[in-house]
Amino acid sequence: MSLRRLAAATVVALLGSGLAACSDPSVPAVDDSHPKRLTVYAASSLKPAFDQLGSTFEDAHPGTLVDFNYAGSSDLVAQIEQGAPADVFASADTKNMEKLGAAAVDPADFATNTLEIAVPPDNPAHVTRLDDLARPGVQLVTCAPQVPCGAAAALVEAGAKLDWKPVSEEQSVADVLGKVESGEADAGLVYVTDVKAAGDKVEGIEIPAAVNATNTYPIASLEGAKDADLAAAWVAYVTGPAGQRVLREYGFGRA
Amino acid sequence: MRAGEPALPRWAWLPAAGGAVLVLLPLAALVAEVPWRDFAGLVTSDSARVALGLSLRTAVASTVLCVLLGTPMALVLARSSFRGLPLLRAAVLLPLVLPPVVAGIALLATFGRRGLLGHVLEVAGVQVAFSTLAVVLAQTFVALPFLVTSLEGALRTAGRRYETVAASLGASPTRVLLRVTLPLVLPGLFSGAVLAFARALGEFGATITFAGSLQGVTRTLPLEIYLQREVDPDAAVALSVLLMAVAVVVIVVARRDRSGL
Protein backbone atom coordinates (compact mmCIF):
# COMPACT_ATOMS: atom_id res chain seq x y z
CA MET A 1 0.00 0.00 0.00
CA SER A 2 2.66 2.48 1.04
CA LEU A 3 4.73 1.59 -2.03
CA ARG A 4 1.75 2.06 -4.24
CA ARG A 5 1.05 5.38 -2.61
CA LEU A 6 4.64 6.44 -3.11
CA ALA A 7 4.37 5.53 -6.77
CA ALA A 8 1.15 7.50 -7.09
CA ALA A 9 2.69 10.50 -5.37
CA THR A 10 5.69 10.30 -7.71
CA VAL A 11 3.46 10.21 -10.76
CA VAL A 12 1.52 13.21 -9.50
CA ALA A 13 4.74 15.11 -8.79
CA LEU A 14 6.17 14.27 -12.21
CA LEU A 15 2.96 15.27 -13.94
CA GLY A 16 2.98 18.52 -12.05
CA SER A 17 6.58 19.37 -12.84
CA GLY A 18 6.08 18.35 -16.46
CA LEU A 19 3.12 20.63 -16.84
CA ALA A 20 4.96 23.45 -15.12
CA ALA A 21 7.88 23.05 -17.49
CA CYS A 22 5.59 23.15 -20.52
CA SER A 23 3.80 26.30 -19.47
CA ASP A 24 6.80 28.14 -18.09
CA PRO A 25 7.65 30.87 -20.59
CA SER A 26 11.06 31.39 -19.00
CA VAL A 27 12.26 28.00 -20.24
CA PRO A 28 13.72 28.76 -23.67
CA ALA A 29 13.34 26.21 -26.43
CA VAL A 30 16.65 25.61 -28.15
CA ASP A 31 16.31 26.31 -31.84
CA ASP A 32 19.37 27.18 -33.87
CA SER A 33 17.47 27.89 -37.06
CA HIS A 34 16.07 31.08 -35.51
CA PRO A 35 19.04 33.12 -34.32
CA LYS A 36 16.93 36.20 -33.47
CA ARG A 37 14.19 35.97 -30.84
CA LEU A 38 11.84 38.67 -29.71
CA THR A 39 9.78 38.23 -26.55
CA VAL A 40 6.61 40.29 -26.38
CA TYR A 41 4.58 40.58 -23.18
CA ALA A 42 1.07 41.68 -24.07
CA ALA A 43 -2.32 42.11 -22.41
CA SER A 44 -4.62 39.10 -22.98
CA SER A 45 -7.08 41.12 -25.07
CA LEU A 46 -4.37 41.63 -27.71
CA LYS A 47 -3.87 37.89 -28.35
CA PRO A 48 -5.81 37.42 -31.60
CA ALA A 49 -4.44 40.60 -33.20
CA PHE A 50 -0.84 40.09 -32.00
CA ASP A 51 -0.78 36.41 -33.01
CA GLN A 52 -1.58 37.48 -36.56
CA LEU A 53 0.89 40.39 -36.48
CA GLY A 54 3.54 38.06 -35.07
CA SER A 55 3.46 35.72 -38.05
CA THR A 56 3.46 38.56 -40.62
CA PHE A 57 6.35 40.21 -38.73
CA GLU A 58 8.29 36.93 -38.87
CA ASP A 59 7.64 36.74 -42.63
CA ALA A 60 8.94 40.29 -43.05
CA HIS A 61 12.03 39.64 -40.90
CA PRO A 62 13.36 36.22 -41.98
CA GLY A 63 15.24 34.41 -39.24
CA THR A 64 13.27 36.12 -36.49
CA LEU A 65 10.97 34.35 -34.07
CA VAL A 66 8.46 36.27 -31.98
CA ASP A 67 7.39 34.72 -28.66
CA PHE A 68 4.34 36.01 -26.84
CA ASN A 69 3.35 35.93 -23.21
CA TYR A 70 -0.29 36.94 -22.79
CA ALA A 71 -1.74 37.68 -19.35
CA GLY A 72 -3.43 40.41 -17.34
CA SER A 73 -1.43 43.64 -17.60
CA SER A 74 -0.71 43.81 -13.87
CA ASP A 75 0.53 40.19 -13.84
CA LEU A 76 2.88 41.02 -16.70
CA VAL A 77 4.18 44.12 -14.92
CA ALA A 78 4.88 42.01 -11.83
CA GLN A 79 6.78 39.47 -13.95
CA ILE A 80 8.80 42.16 -15.73
CA GLU A 81 9.66 43.79 -12.40
CA GLN A 82 10.91 40.39 -11.19
CA GLY A 83 13.28 40.23 -14.14
CA ALA A 84 11.31 38.25 -16.73
CA PRO A 85 13.08 38.27 -20.14
CA ALA A 86 10.63 40.58 -21.92
CA ASP A 87 11.74 42.81 -24.82
CA VAL A 88 8.45 44.63 -25.43
CA PHE A 89 5.42 45.30 -23.23
CA ALA A 90 1.95 46.16 -24.53
CA SER A 91 -0.45 47.11 -21.73
CA ALA A 92 -4.24 47.33 -21.68
CA ASP A 93 -4.09 50.57 -19.72
CA THR A 94 -1.70 53.45 -19.10
CA LYS A 95 -1.65 52.84 -15.34
CA ASN A 96 0.23 49.55 -15.63
CA MET A 97 2.68 50.96 -18.19
CA GLU A 98 3.43 53.83 -15.80
CA LYS A 99 4.31 51.32 -13.06
CA LEU A 100 7.38 50.34 -15.09
CA GLY A 101 8.71 53.90 -15.02
CA ALA A 102 11.99 54.37 -16.88
CA ALA A 103 12.23 50.64 -17.66
CA ALA A 104 9.72 51.29 -20.46
CA VAL A 105 11.40 53.19 -23.32
CA ASP A 106 9.15 55.95 -24.74
CA PRO A 107 5.70 54.35 -24.41
CA ALA A 108 3.39 55.11 -27.32
CA ASP A 109 -0.41 54.76 -27.36
CA PHE A 110 -1.37 52.43 -30.18
CA ALA A 111 -4.99 51.37 -29.67
CA THR A 112 -8.17 51.96 -27.68
CA ASN A 113 -10.89 49.66 -26.51
CA THR A 114 -14.41 50.29 -25.21
CA LEU A 115 -16.95 48.21 -23.35
CA GLU A 116 -19.84 46.32 -24.85
CA ILE A 117 -22.65 44.20 -23.38
CA ALA A 118 -22.27 40.50 -24.14
CA VAL A 119 -25.31 38.21 -23.90
CA PRO A 120 -25.75 34.51 -24.74
CA PRO A 121 -26.96 34.02 -28.34
CA ASP A 122 -30.54 33.24 -27.24
CA ASN A 123 -30.52 36.25 -24.89
CA PRO A 124 -32.64 34.57 -22.17
CA ALA A 125 -33.20 37.77 -20.15
CA HIS A 126 -34.11 39.83 -23.25
CA VAL A 127 -31.42 42.44 -22.68
CA THR A 128 -31.61 45.09 -25.38
CA ARG A 129 -30.13 48.22 -23.81
CA LEU A 130 -27.88 49.38 -21.01
CA ASP A 131 -30.79 50.07 -18.60
CA ASP A 132 -31.73 46.39 -18.71
CA LEU A 133 -28.60 45.50 -16.79
CA ALA A 134 -30.03 47.09 -13.65
CA ARG A 135 -33.35 45.24 -14.02
CA PRO A 136 -34.04 42.82 -11.14
CA GLY A 137 -33.67 39.19 -12.19
CA VAL A 138 -31.02 39.90 -14.81
CA GLN A 139 -27.92 37.92 -13.86
CA LEU A 140 -25.20 40.43 -14.63
CA VAL A 141 -21.50 39.62 -14.39
CA THR A 142 -18.82 42.30 -14.49
CA CYS A 143 -15.14 42.58 -13.65
CA ALA A 144 -14.23 43.57 -10.09
CA PRO A 145 -13.60 47.33 -9.72
CA GLN A 146 -9.99 46.52 -8.79
CA VAL A 147 -9.13 45.42 -12.35
CA PRO A 148 -9.19 47.72 -15.43
CA CYS A 149 -12.31 46.23 -17.05
CA GLY A 150 -14.17 46.59 -13.73
CA ALA A 151 -13.05 50.19 -13.31
CA ALA A 152 -14.37 50.85 -16.81
CA ALA A 153 -17.69 49.16 -15.94
CA ALA A 154 -18.01 51.36 -12.85
CA LEU A 155 -17.47 54.45 -15.04
CA VAL A 156 -20.27 53.31 -17.35
CA GLU A 157 -22.57 52.62 -14.40
CA ALA A 158 -21.95 56.10 -12.96
CA GLY A 159 -22.13 57.78 -16.37
CA ALA A 160 -25.52 56.22 -17.14
CA LYS A 161 -26.76 56.91 -13.58
CA LEU A 162 -27.60 53.25 -13.09
CA ASP A 163 -27.26 51.04 -10.04
CA TRP A 164 -26.74 47.43 -10.96
CA LYS A 165 -26.14 44.46 -8.71
CA PRO A 166 -23.80 41.98 -10.39
CA VAL A 167 -24.09 38.35 -9.24
CA SER A 168 -20.33 38.08 -9.65
CA GLU A 169 -17.38 40.46 -9.95
CA GLU A 170 -14.75 38.53 -11.84
CA GLN A 171 -11.01 38.78 -11.97
CA SER A 172 -10.67 39.22 -15.73
CA VAL A 173 -12.62 39.78 -18.92
CA ALA A 174 -12.00 36.15 -19.87
CA ASP A 175 -13.82 35.03 -16.71
CA VAL A 176 -16.77 37.31 -17.49
CA LEU A 177 -16.93 36.08 -21.08
CA GLY A 178 -16.78 32.46 -19.88
CA LYS A 179 -19.81 32.98 -17.65
CA VAL A 180 -21.78 34.49 -20.54
CA GLU A 181 -20.70 31.87 -23.11
CA SER A 182 -21.73 29.05 -20.78
CA GLY A 183 -25.12 30.71 -20.26
CA GLU A 184 -24.63 31.03 -16.50
CA ALA A 185 -24.93 34.79 -16.77
CA ASP A 186 -27.64 36.69 -18.66
CA ALA A 187 -25.28 39.52 -19.51
CA GLY A 188 -21.69 40.56 -19.02
CA LEU A 189 -19.67 43.71 -19.57
CA VAL A 190 -16.60 43.00 -21.69
CA TYR A 191 -14.50 44.79 -24.30
CA VAL A 192 -15.72 45.27 -27.86
CA THR A 193 -12.74 43.19 -29.04
CA ASP A 194 -13.77 40.29 -26.79
CA VAL A 195 -17.26 40.17 -28.31
CA LYS A 196 -15.69 40.18 -31.77
CA ALA A 197 -13.20 37.43 -30.87
CA ALA A 198 -15.93 35.27 -29.32
CA GLY A 199 -17.65 35.00 -32.72
CA ASP A 200 -21.18 33.59 -32.52
CA LYS A 201 -20.77 32.30 -28.96
CA VAL A 202 -22.06 35.63 -27.65
CA GLU A 203 -24.18 38.45 -28.98
CA GLY A 204 -22.94 42.05 -28.56
CA ILE A 205 -25.11 45.00 -27.58
CA GLU A 206 -23.54 48.43 -28.03
CA ILE A 207 -23.25 50.94 -25.21
CA PRO A 208 -24.01 54.58 -26.17
CA ALA A 209 -20.70 56.39 -26.80
CA ALA A 210 -21.74 59.23 -24.48
CA VAL A 211 -21.54 56.97 -21.41
CA ASN A 212 -18.97 54.42 -22.59
CA ALA A 213 -15.51 54.18 -21.05
CA THR A 214 -12.36 54.07 -23.19
CA ASN A 215 -9.13 52.26 -22.36
CA THR A 216 -5.92 53.39 -24.02
CA TYR A 217 -3.28 50.77 -24.84
CA PRO A 218 0.39 51.85 -24.69
CA ILE A 219 3.33 49.85 -26.07
CA ALA A 220 7.04 50.24 -25.31
CA SER A 221 10.30 48.40 -25.78
CA LEU A 222 11.97 47.64 -22.50
CA GLU A 223 15.26 48.86 -21.08
CA GLY A 224 16.74 45.36 -20.82
CA ALA A 225 15.74 44.17 -24.33
CA LYS A 226 18.12 41.56 -25.77
CA ASP A 227 18.03 43.27 -29.17
CA ALA A 228 16.90 46.88 -28.84
CA ASP A 229 16.66 47.37 -32.64
CA LEU A 230 14.41 44.36 -33.07
CA ALA A 231 12.22 45.49 -30.15
CA ALA A 232 11.94 48.97 -31.69
CA ALA A 233 11.09 47.39 -35.05
CA TRP A 234 8.16 45.51 -33.46
CA VAL A 235 6.85 48.68 -31.79
CA ALA A 236 7.12 50.53 -35.12
CA TYR A 237 5.30 47.66 -36.86
CA VAL A 238 2.40 47.69 -34.38
CA THR A 239 2.04 51.49 -34.41
CA GLY A 240 2.53 51.64 -38.21
CA PRO A 241 -0.10 51.23 -40.95
CA ALA A 242 0.06 47.41 -41.17
CA GLY A 243 -0.31 46.95 -37.41
CA GLN A 244 -3.07 49.50 -37.17
CA ARG A 245 -5.04 47.87 -39.99
CA VAL A 246 -4.99 44.51 -38.22
CA LEU A 247 -5.92 46.06 -34.87
CA ARG A 248 -8.95 47.76 -36.51
CA GLU A 249 -10.00 44.39 -37.93
CA TYR A 250 -10.10 42.98 -34.42
CA GLY A 251 -12.20 45.85 -33.11
CA PHE A 252 -9.62 48.13 -31.53
CA GLY A 253 -10.03 51.88 -31.92
CA ARG A 254 -7.44 54.42 -33.06
CA ALA A 255 -5.40 55.88 -30.21
CA MET B 1 16.86 6.73 20.97
CA ARG B 2 16.57 3.47 22.87
CA ALA B 3 19.27 0.89 22.37
CA GLY B 4 18.27 -1.84 19.97
CA GLU B 5 15.71 0.31 18.15
CA PRO B 6 16.60 0.17 14.45
CA ALA B 7 18.10 3.49 13.32
CA LEU B 8 17.22 5.36 10.16
CA PRO B 9 20.08 5.12 7.66
CA ARG B 10 22.04 8.33 7.92
CA TRP B 11 21.87 9.11 4.18
CA ALA B 12 18.07 9.44 4.43
CA TRP B 13 18.51 12.73 6.24
CA LEU B 14 19.97 14.44 3.21
CA PRO B 15 17.00 14.14 0.81
CA ALA B 16 14.68 14.71 3.78
CA ALA B 17 16.42 18.00 4.49
CA GLY B 18 16.28 18.90 0.81
CA GLY B 19 12.51 18.31 0.79
CA ALA B 20 12.04 20.36 3.94
CA VAL B 21 14.00 23.25 2.42
CA LEU B 22 11.94 23.09 -0.76
CA VAL B 23 8.72 23.44 1.24
CA LEU B 24 9.84 25.76 4.01
CA LEU B 25 12.00 28.22 2.10
CA PRO B 26 9.19 29.69 -0.04
CA LEU B 27 6.95 29.88 3.05
CA ALA B 28 9.70 31.70 4.94
CA ALA B 29 10.22 34.02 1.97
CA LEU B 30 6.50 34.79 2.00
CA VAL B 31 6.53 35.57 5.71
CA ALA B 32 9.58 37.81 5.15
CA GLU B 33 7.55 39.80 2.61
CA VAL B 34 4.85 40.67 5.12
CA PRO B 35 4.65 44.37 5.98
CA TRP B 36 4.28 43.67 9.70
CA ARG B 37 3.67 47.30 10.65
CA ASP B 38 0.44 47.33 8.61
CA PHE B 39 -0.37 43.66 9.15
CA ALA B 40 -3.22 44.13 11.63
CA GLY B 41 -4.90 46.72 9.43
CA LEU B 42 -4.51 44.63 6.28
CA VAL B 43 -6.00 41.43 7.71
CA THR B 44 -8.86 43.11 9.58
CA SER B 45 -10.17 45.15 6.63
CA ASP B 46 -13.87 44.63 5.89
CA SER B 47 -13.29 42.60 2.75
CA ALA B 48 -10.67 40.42 4.49
CA ARG B 49 -12.92 39.61 7.46
CA VAL B 50 -15.89 38.83 5.23
CA ALA B 51 -13.71 36.59 3.04
CA LEU B 52 -12.21 34.75 6.01
CA GLY B 53 -15.65 34.19 7.55
CA LEU B 54 -16.99 32.84 4.27
CA SER B 55 -13.93 30.60 3.86
CA LEU B 56 -14.31 29.09 7.33
CA ARG B 57 -18.06 28.52 6.96
CA THR B 58 -17.79 26.92 3.53
CA ALA B 59 -14.76 24.80 4.46
CA VAL B 60 -16.58 23.45 7.54
CA ALA B 61 -19.67 22.67 5.45
CA SER B 62 -17.55 20.95 2.80
CA THR B 63 -15.72 18.91 5.45
CA VAL B 64 -19.05 17.72 6.90
CA LEU B 65 -20.19 16.74 3.40
CA CYS B 66 -16.88 14.97 2.80
CA VAL B 67 -17.27 12.94 6.00
CA LEU B 68 -20.90 12.04 5.26
CA LEU B 69 -20.20 11.00 1.66
CA GLY B 70 -16.57 9.97 1.88
CA THR B 71 -16.81 7.57 4.81
CA PRO B 72 -19.20 5.17 3.02
CA MET B 73 -17.10 5.54 -0.14
CA ALA B 74 -13.94 4.53 1.72
CA LEU B 75 -15.79 1.57 3.29
CA VAL B 76 -16.94 0.36 -0.10
CA LEU B 77 -13.45 0.76 -1.59
CA ALA B 78 -11.72 -1.00 1.32
CA ARG B 79 -14.22 -3.70 2.22
CA SER B 80 -15.92 -4.86 -0.92
CA SER B 81 -14.80 -6.42 -4.16
CA PHE B 82 -16.54 -6.30 -7.47
CA ARG B 83 -15.60 -5.90 -11.11
CA GLY B 84 -14.55 -2.37 -11.86
CA LEU B 85 -13.49 -1.55 -8.31
CA PRO B 86 -9.94 -0.49 -9.32
CA LEU B 87 -11.46 1.71 -12.01
CA LEU B 88 -13.83 3.24 -9.47
CA ARG B 89 -10.92 3.92 -7.10
CA ALA B 90 -8.98 5.66 -9.87
CA ALA B 91 -12.04 7.76 -10.76
CA VAL B 92 -12.54 8.80 -7.15
CA LEU B 93 -8.92 9.98 -6.97
CA LEU B 94 -9.13 11.90 -10.24
CA PRO B 95 -9.88 15.30 -8.64
CA LEU B 96 -6.38 15.08 -7.13
CA VAL B 97 -4.71 15.38 -10.52
CA LEU B 98 -7.39 17.37 -12.32
CA PRO B 99 -6.44 21.06 -12.66
CA PRO B 100 -9.00 22.83 -10.43
CA VAL B 101 -10.13 24.99 -13.35
CA VAL B 102 -11.11 21.81 -15.19
CA ALA B 103 -12.98 20.69 -12.07
CA GLY B 104 -14.84 24.01 -12.22
CA ILE B 105 -15.75 23.47 -15.85
CA ALA B 106 -16.95 19.95 -15.06
CA LEU B 107 -19.11 21.26 -12.22
CA LEU B 108 -20.56 23.94 -14.52
CA ALA B 109 -21.39 21.24 -17.05
CA THR B 110 -23.24 19.38 -14.29
CA PHE B 111 -24.88 21.95 -12.05
CA GLY B 112 -24.84 25.01 -14.33
CA ARG B 113 -28.01 26.51 -15.75
CA ARG B 114 -27.37 24.68 -19.05
CA GLY B 115 -25.68 21.73 -17.40
CA LEU B 116 -26.74 18.12 -17.09
CA LEU B 117 -28.87 18.75 -13.98
CA GLY B 118 -29.56 22.41 -14.74
CA HIS B 119 -33.15 21.84 -15.82
CA VAL B 120 -33.98 19.57 -12.87
CA LEU B 121 -32.52 22.09 -10.43
CA GLU B 122 -34.42 24.94 -12.06
CA VAL B 123 -37.71 23.07 -11.71
CA ALA B 124 -36.83 22.38 -8.07
CA GLY B 125 -36.21 26.09 -7.64
CA VAL B 126 -32.54 25.69 -6.75
CA GLN B 127 -30.04 28.08 -8.25
CA VAL B 128 -26.52 26.84 -7.82
CA ALA B 129 -24.51 29.22 -10.00
CA PHE B 130 -23.09 32.28 -8.22
CA SER B 131 -24.29 31.00 -4.83
CA THR B 132 -22.45 29.95 -1.67
CA LEU B 133 -23.76 26.44 -2.37
CA ALA B 134 -21.60 26.42 -5.50
CA VAL B 135 -18.54 27.23 -3.39
CA VAL B 136 -19.31 24.30 -1.07
CA LEU B 137 -19.83 21.94 -4.02
CA ALA B 138 -16.51 23.00 -5.57
CA GLN B 139 -14.64 22.54 -2.29
CA THR B 140 -16.26 19.17 -1.62
CA PHE B 141 -15.39 17.97 -5.12
CA VAL B 142 -11.68 18.70 -4.71
CA ALA B 143 -11.42 17.73 -1.02
CA LEU B 144 -13.29 14.40 -1.09
CA PRO B 145 -10.37 12.28 -2.38
CA PHE B 146 -8.22 13.38 0.56
CA LEU B 147 -10.72 12.00 3.05
CA VAL B 148 -11.43 8.85 1.05
CA THR B 149 -7.77 7.87 0.56
CA SER B 150 -6.68 8.42 4.15
CA LEU B 151 -9.70 6.58 5.51
CA GLU B 152 -9.32 3.74 3.03
CA GLY B 153 -5.68 3.40 4.10
CA ALA B 154 -6.71 3.32 7.76
CA LEU B 155 -9.36 0.68 7.06
CA ARG B 156 -6.87 -1.57 5.27
CA THR B 157 -4.29 -1.15 8.03
CA ALA B 158 -6.88 -1.94 10.72
CA GLY B 159 -7.69 -5.23 9.03
CA ARG B 160 -10.80 -7.33 9.50
CA ARG B 161 -9.94 -9.48 12.54
CA TYR B 162 -12.08 -7.64 15.09
CA GLU B 163 -14.94 -7.34 12.62
CA THR B 164 -14.80 -11.10 12.00
CA VAL B 165 -14.90 -11.82 15.72
CA ALA B 166 -17.82 -9.44 16.32
CA ALA B 167 -19.77 -10.95 13.44
CA SER B 168 -19.12 -14.47 14.71
CA LEU B 169 -20.57 -13.38 18.05
CA GLY B 170 -23.78 -12.51 16.27
CA ALA B 171 -23.44 -8.75 15.70
CA SER B 172 -25.34 -7.41 12.71
CA PRO B 173 -23.36 -5.74 9.89
CA THR B 174 -24.57 -2.30 11.01
CA ARG B 175 -23.59 -3.02 14.60
CA VAL B 176 -20.13 -4.22 13.49
CA LEU B 177 -19.69 -1.07 11.43
CA LEU B 178 -20.77 1.34 14.18
CA ARG B 179 -19.26 -0.43 17.22
CA VAL B 180 -16.08 -2.00 15.82
CA THR B 181 -14.97 -0.67 12.44
CA LEU B 182 -15.56 3.06 12.83
CA PRO B 183 -14.10 3.37 16.37
CA LEU B 184 -10.99 1.55 15.13
CA VAL B 185 -10.40 3.94 12.23
CA LEU B 186 -11.50 7.12 14.01
CA PRO B 187 -7.97 8.60 13.99
CA GLY B 188 -7.72 7.94 10.24
CA LEU B 189 -11.13 9.51 9.67
CA PHE B 190 -10.06 12.48 11.74
CA SER B 191 -6.82 13.14 9.89
CA GLY B 192 -8.65 12.65 6.60
CA ALA B 193 -11.19 15.26 7.66
CA VAL B 194 -8.41 17.68 8.60
CA LEU B 195 -6.76 17.19 5.21
CA ALA B 196 -10.09 17.73 3.48
CA PHE B 197 -10.70 20.89 5.51
CA ALA B 198 -7.26 22.26 4.64
CA ARG B 199 -7.77 21.52 0.95
CA ALA B 200 -11.23 23.14 1.01
CA LEU B 201 -9.80 26.21 2.70
CA GLY B 202 -7.23 26.67 -0.04
CA GLU B 203 -9.59 25.91 -2.96
CA PHE B 204 -9.33 28.50 -5.72
CA GLY B 205 -9.55 27.40 -9.33
CA ALA B 206 -12.79 25.43 -9.24
CA THR B 207 -14.46 28.12 -7.16
CA ILE B 208 -13.59 31.03 -9.44
CA THR B 209 -14.62 29.04 -12.51
CA PHE B 210 -17.83 27.58 -11.15
CA ALA B 211 -19.08 29.93 -8.42
CA GLY B 212 -17.82 33.34 -9.48
CA SER B 213 -16.53 35.99 -7.11
CA LEU B 214 -18.74 38.27 -5.04
CA GLN B 215 -17.94 39.65 -1.61
CA GLY B 216 -19.77 37.78 1.15
CA VAL B 217 -21.32 35.25 -1.23
CA THR B 218 -18.64 33.46 -3.21
CA ARG B 219 -15.40 35.39 -2.69
CA THR B 220 -13.46 33.16 -0.30
CA LEU B 221 -10.09 34.14 1.12
CA PRO B 222 -8.02 32.65 -1.75
CA LEU B 223 -10.12 34.59 -4.27
CA GLU B 224 -9.76 37.74 -2.18
CA ILE B 225 -5.97 37.25 -2.13
CA TYR B 226 -5.90 36.91 -5.91
CA LEU B 227 -7.97 40.06 -6.33
CA GLN B 228 -5.99 42.09 -3.80
CA ARG B 229 -2.84 41.24 -5.75
CA GLU B 230 -4.13 43.49 -8.50
CA VAL B 231 -4.24 46.58 -6.34
CA ASP B 232 -2.34 45.95 -3.12
CA PRO B 233 0.33 43.23 -3.19
CA ASP B 234 1.07 43.90 0.50
CA ALA B 235 -2.50 43.02 1.43
CA ALA B 236 -2.31 39.87 -0.70
CA VAL B 237 0.83 38.73 1.14
CA ALA B 238 -0.67 39.53 4.56
CA LEU B 239 -3.85 37.59 3.73
CA SER B 240 -1.81 34.64 2.45
CA VAL B 241 0.01 34.48 5.76
CA LEU B 242 -3.33 34.67 7.56
CA LEU B 243 -4.62 31.73 5.49
CA MET B 244 -1.44 29.78 6.27
CA ALA B 245 -1.80 30.54 9.98
CA VAL B 246 -5.40 29.28 10.02
CA ALA B 247 -4.35 26.06 8.27
CA VAL B 248 -1.42 25.51 10.64
CA VAL B 249 -3.62 26.09 13.73
CA VAL B 250 -6.22 23.62 12.45
CA ILE B 251 -3.63 20.96 11.69
CA VAL B 252 -1.76 21.37 15.00
CA VAL B 253 -4.93 21.38 17.10
CA ALA B 254 -6.29 18.39 15.24
CA ARG B 255 -3.07 16.42 15.74
CA ARG B 256 -3.11 17.12 19.47
CA ASP B 257 -6.76 16.07 19.83
CA ARG B 258 -6.04 12.97 17.85
CA SER B 259 -3.15 11.83 20.00
CA GLY B 260 -5.45 12.33 22.99
CA LEU B 261 -7.97 9.85 21.63
UniProtKB/TrEMBL annotation, chain A:
Pfam families: SBP_bac_11. Residues 1-20 form the signal peptide. InterPro entries: ModA, ModA/WtpA. Gene3D superfamilies: Periplasmic binding protein-like II. Coiled coil: none annotated. Keywords: Metal-binding, Signal. Belongs to the bacterial solute-binding protein ModA family. This is Molybdate-binding protein. It comes from Nocardioides phosphati.
UniProtKB/TrEMBL annotation, chain B:
It is found in: Cell membrane; Membrane. InterPro entries: MetI-like (IPR000515), MetI-like_sf (IPR035906), ModB_ABC (IPR011867), NifC_ABC_porter (IPR006469), Sulph_transpt2 (IPR005667). SUPFAM superfamilies: MetI-like (SSF161098). The chain crosses the membrane at residues 12-32, 52-78, 90-109, 129-155, 176-198, 235-254. The keyword Transmembrane helix applies. It is a multi-pass membrane protein. Keywords: Cell membrane, Membrane, Molybdenum, Sulfate transport, Transmembrane, Transmembrane helix, Transport. PROSITE patterns: ABC_TM1. Signal peptide: none annotated. Its main location: membrane. Residues 52-254 form the ABC transmembrane type-1 domain. It comes from the Bacteria. Part of the ABC transporter complex CysAWTP (TC 3.A.1.6.1) involved in sulfate/thiosulfate import. Probably responsible for the translocation of the substrate across the membrane. Belongs to the binding-protein-dependent transport system permease family. CysTW subfamily. The complex is composed of two ATP-binding proteins (CysA), two transmembrane proteins (CysT and CysW) and a solute-binding protein (CysP). This is Molybdenum transport system permease.
